[in-house]
Write a structure and sequence with these properties.
- This protein is α/β, with parallel strands linked by helices.
- It is about 40% helix and about 20% strand.
- It has helices at about 10-20, 55-65, 80-85, 85-105, 140-160, 190-195, 225-235, 255-265, 290-295, 305-315; strands at about 1-5, 25-30, 45-50, 70, 110-115, 160-170, 170, 205, 220, 220-225, 240-245, 250, 270-275, 280-285.
- A seven-stranded parallel β-sheet has the order 3-2-1-4-5-6-11, sandwiched between helices.
- It is globular, with a radius of gyration of 19 Å.
- It binds uridine-5'-diphosphate-4-deoxy-4-fluoro-alpha-D-galactose.
- Uridine-5'-diphosphate-4-deoxy-4-fluoro-alpha-D-galactose binds near residues 170, 186 and 204.
């Protein structure tokens, strides 16, 4: 298929593009490079350096390239930042996403795959988390993603869009070619690996008084290649609906630090700090719907293999992407 991938220069989007191209799809990357990197874009993808804020550019892109499906990954995606700057989240993740959706509908697109998040559930009332749980976000990031999920359902009713909504848990790891490089890094695993690389002196642990076994937050880490495979399956005819994408197992912040020490064989100094605002204590997926309907199951389930892939990439790219 000919697929338009927004955010295809970013961490998750660039891995999706890599796997789509490996599977024989034709890819157009639409990215403003605010978070993404030119060097992360697969050389066989057609790159359009534009912003989703511009409806004119979007219409031009659909007209010129005639994609058959859209995978919308581009977003602002930091829980902590969203608590400080909600406007950025509602503008990028809702208003700009509606621009994209309108352009897609005007050009007759049915298949619209959307990167949503487990942050739409807020503090889950039961674990592991199934799609049927109430969605009650506790930060503007989760709220912005939930708002666009709802907009998609209206467009499904009114414009016969076929939405596939992926609620990612914690994306992690790297392909041999593509890894995690945010200009300001806030994510746990790359921050720990920076200490192992000698680029930071210590790793911060945000909150040690949660109601978990060791007092730190628990997350479900899912490899970016596994996420990418789900997107490929989403393109199959008849697939619609919302799916959780996670491994179904959780690791605490301390467990992740220890796994990083084991993988890198380097010392990692930690400093314990108060909780970070907006962080739910435990997020772990029940991904059986994706397994039953999409026929998707993650391949890289151990935290050590996920961290290993990230470590290999960071060793090869100690300063991330150069452009
Ligand atoms: N953490 C630390 N120290 C750090 C960084 C993070 O202790 O230096 C903790 C956080 O407080 C949290 C956990 O590690 O408890 C994971 O934090 P990340 O920042 O790596 O990831 P988040 O869970 O906050 O958010 C990520 C993505 C979101 C996505 C979410 C799904 O950024 O887009 O996973 O859980 F929605």
């Amino acid at each position: 298929m000919k697929v338009l991938v927004t955010g295809g220069a970013g961490y998750i989007g660039s891995a999706c593009v890599e796997h789509l191209i490996q599977e024989g799809h034709q890819v157009i990357v639409y990215d403003n490079l605010s978070e993404g990197h030119r060097d992360a874009i697969h050389p066989d993808a057609h790159f359009i350096h534009n912003d989703l804020a511009s409806s004119i550019d979007l219409h031009g892109c659909f007209q010129k390239h005639n994609p058959e499906a859209v995978i919308h990954v581009a977003a602002s995606a930091l829980v902590g930042e969203s608590m400080a700057n909600p406007s950025k989240y509602f503008t990028n993740n809702v208003a700009n996403a509606v621009n994209l959706l309108d352009a897609a509908v005007n050009h007759g697109i049915k298949k619209f795959v959307f990167s949503s998040t487990c942050a739409t559930y807020g503090i889950p009332e039961s674990l592991p988390m199934a799609e049927s749980l109430p969605q009650l976000p506790i930060n503007p990031y989760g709220e912005s993603k939930l708002m666009f999920e709802k907009i998609l359902l209206w467009y499904q009713k009114i414009h016969n869009v076929e939405p596939v909504i992926f609620r990612y848990f914690n994306a992690a790891g790297a392909t041999p070619e593509r890894g995690e490089h945010h200009r300001i890094e806030t994510h746990l695993i790359p921050n720990i690996l920076k200490v192992a690389l000698g680029q930071s002196s210590e790793c911060m642990i945000f909150g040690t008084d949660y109601d978990t076994q060791d007092g730190t937050c628990i997350r479900d880490y899912i490899h970016i290649s596994d996420l990418a495979q789900a997107h490929i399956k989403a393109l199959n005819p008849g697939i619609q609906g919302a799916f959780n994408l996670g491994n179904g197992g959780g690791y605490s912040v301390r467990q992740v630090v220890n796994a990083c020490i084991e993988v890198t064989q380097r010392p990692i100094k930690i400093v314990e700090l108060p909780r970070r605002e907006g962080d739910p204590p435990i997020l772990v997926a029940n991904a059986s719907k994706a397994s039953n309907i999409l026929r998707w199951s993650p391949g890289l389930t151990s935290i050590h293999s996920i961290i290993s892939s990230a470590w290999d990439w960071h060793l090869k790219h100690p300063h991330g992407y150069l452009d």
